[in-house]
Design brief:
Blueprint lengths: L2 E4 L5 E6 L5 H12 L5 H6 L12 E6 L2 E14 L6 E12 L8 H16 L4 E4 L4 H5 L8 H5 L11 E2 L10 E2 L4 H5 L2 H20 L8 H90 L6 E6 L2 H9 L5 E3 L3 E2 L6 E7 L10 E9 L14 E6 L9 E5 L19 E8 H4 L12 E8 L7 H7 L6 H16 L4 H9 L2 E4 L6
Helix pairs in contact: 7-8
Bound molecules: zinc ion.
The site of zinc ion has 7 residues, from α7.
Length: about 525
Amino acid sequence: MTASATINDTSTIIYHPVRKHEQQQAIDLWYSIFGTFPGMDDRYFGSLASPRYQEGDTLGAWFDGKLVSIVNIAHLILRSRDDDSEYQCATITCVGTLEEYRKRGYSRHLLRMAIDKMEQSGKFDVSILNTRGPKHYSILGWKQTTFEDVSTKRECTTKSKQIACPLSKYGCTSELLYDELPEHYSSSIHLEKLFKAIEIFVQELHSKPFYDNFQCDLEKDYYSEILPSINILAEGISCLHDDNVQIHNNFVQVLSKIVEQQKQIEKVKNSIEETSQMLYVADMNNKILQTQVETLKQTISDCSSTSSNDGSYVWKISNVSEKLADAIADRQTSIYSPPLYSSSTGYKMCMRLYMNGDGQARGTHLSLFFVLMRGDYDSILTWPFSYKVIFCLYDQTGSQRHIIDSFRPDIKSNSFQRPRSAMNIASGIPKFLPLSIIQPANNPYVRDDCMFIRCIVDFESMPKMCIPYALNLNLGLPMSIREKAIQAESEKLRSPSSLSTVTRCTESSTKIDHLTVKT
Ligand SMILES: [Zn+2]
């Protein structure tokens, strides 16, 4: 337990326990620091000293061989009033330094030596000292306490007790469990109080001479060492406090922005709802318009396809293979032609075609029917409808082997009375053409997946022999020229010397004349 340090080139400081022959130097030092009182030597080293005192319990610092600072350890026994149990107790007494050697940390060094000695001995339950400067000693590990605290030290139950925050006298009034302390120390309320406490502490340091008696050199020493650190800490805490305030302000700003944005989102939501309602209405209107457009398209198509109101219409049927497949699969068994008119104020009519046959002809023949439709001038026309109807399926190869068939209406049938609904029941030729004729590839009637069927209403009762002639006339010729040609041919046929022409016509056409009615 001896230590030395060089102070300057020539001086040394040596620390070691006060030996028996040095005890007088110790007594002299105490006299010079604390003044005299009788029997001091006897009290510490003589008959009044503790029976447990051992040489070395007094520690000293020698400056160039002169004892200048001293600390004493006294050995006491504390006895509990409750259960009579004993506690081995080391008491620090008589801490002092000659005035001219203070502020050098000598007594602090001796106190550390005393602590080491007490701890290494292992025989003390507690160490106490009686002082008016508890703050100073708390730096070295002592703290203010009561005997009850000492007596409950071994079975410490502080963890389950509510304890006051150490800064309670600076306004941090929280009562906490032991385990809650670490979290509390980092709380903003505690840091704020800590900042205040340090401010007060620093002010005290600057303004109040609180050093007194024998601790003064030690405290001055210590505080002059830690003062810069405390100032730095205080500054740091001040900065932290400012940061905290700044963060709080930022947080408030962000919060108000969030509230503002939530309002905006609400507005956008409402406007989206309105827009979607408008879109729904627009969609409905669009659908209505679409239907109207379809109707208009149909009307225009009907108008354009009935440019000639002469009771004759050539129906171009495209996508024949698809329509045949639809009919076979029952997806759509029949199709209607656009309407044809007998004149601009005449009968309204159309054709109905069963690509895969109808009734008994199903799967074997094309069925072709004539339909009377309700027209705008029906009320001033002649009823029932009694004119012969001629159908023709065109040969597209140029060899004029057209399929021609006709029928005369049964005027008792409802099909030929004035229409009371949009359409009368179709009537015509169920076995117009065996399917086997149009099924082979390269047959003359279906080319480029299209076929042409013509309907002629014969208002003039053409001679039968003239029908093939009329159908063979080039459709590219103007109507007036074709009419003239047909008229001339009719007259020629009606005269007795015209048989050769009839023969020519029948040779190149398939001519059937019968009447069938679809019901
Ligand atoms: Zn606190």
